[in-house]
Amino acid sequence: MLNIVIFGAPGSGKGTQSERIVTKYGLSHISTGDVLRAEIKNGTDLGRTAKQYIDQGQLLPDELIIDILASTLDGLKDSKGVIFDGFPRTIAQAEALKQMLAERGQAVSVMLDLDVPEDELMKRLLLRGQQSGRADDNEETIRKRLTVYHSQTAPLIDWYKKEGLYAHINGLGELERITTDICAAIEGK
Prior knowledge:
Blueprint: E1 2-7, H1 14-25, E2 28-31, H2 32-41, H3 45-55, H4 62-74, E3 81-85, H5 91-103, E4 110-115, H6 118-132, H7 139-153, H8 156-163, E5 166-170, H9 175-187
Parallel strand pairs: 1-3, 1-4, 2-3, 4-5
């Protein structure tokens, strides 16, 4: 199974590139953001709890996310693999993902780090907020999300480097070139 972690700050292009990877390699896409937004929209207990964290620009508790992902993964019986989009976000989550996959006889194949300068991230997210109406794409919440990313999520880069799974991708520039770089990283692992 080809299991990919796509990584990057909010607005780095994870969703766009995930769609391209899913199409090319026939993978299933697990976006924690999409899963959580669906829970919020459906007004579930999980959705209400998640909304409180998201509205504050904070990360959800690990055990909550792991349970959601394990359940989602177990529902994908005939998949060639999975791209994890928006997870893990902390070293504890990366360790939990490694354990969860190992229990299923699987492992992460590669971690793709979409690297985009912060000023470009801000432009992209503000534009996305204007176009989509997403309430969490406003300047104050974006700044909080970027602060959380740098303090809690960026340390994953070193963790995945130690695991020998890290691939740096320049996330600024032409969409096709970024996709080509991603495919080279996937096929090189």
